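Sequence in, structure out.
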Amino acid sequence: MSKVLLILLDGMRPDSITDIPQVQELKKTASWSMDAQTVFPSVTLPCHMSLFHSVDPDRHGTTTNTYMPQVRPIKGLCEVLKANKKVNAFFYSWEELKDLSRPDSLSFACYCSGHTETYELADAHTVDILTDYIPKYQPDFTFLYFGLTDMAGHSYGWMSERYMTAMQESWEKAARAIACLPEDYTVIITADHGGHGRSHGSTMPEDMTIPIFFKGPDFKPGEELHGLNIKDIAPTITRLLGCEPDPEWEGKSLI
């Protein structure tokens, strides 16, 4: 049975990574999609909530970057895993992501503030701590978030030179995180949304289209996948960890 590392690069557009060496190598060893879809509004916290709860924003209720307590609560990924006695760990640089899971569902959380220091440093610090933590404790599910890419998009524009540099640097950090993993880990790499100009949140393809990579024994190397949605990630992770997805989830498992 696999353990899972989920890596998310905030604001990663598929067409921004075609020339990145780590991506070219990963396409040979992973199943992947360059036309997966996120949810609307294509905004960071609503998209993350949909990833972790496998429903649209109009169901979980968070439609901006301010968390809204659920009127009809639905269990998230970490709550389902915790109920099945799985160990969850979070490493992130954007404070609002603390609401993706209930506090008692995490065994370890590392928050390095991208507001207090630069996202470049904060993302690097989370990787430093992760590469020490995972080999020692080997959690069943680990979430690693990079905020530098989204910050570069808002500051300099999506597909700008600074954005592309941030994307390369973040993939290098991701490679360092992957290199520390024991053999029984499956790696999933994705984004919450894309972007255009210096913004996102619309139904434009540039905002709604995201890449997803799955590398592990349950996935065929080099296979291109189509028809994927960000809501499919949580059901897939629960299956990888030998658990049943929550019956209210709307996404489909790829296992």
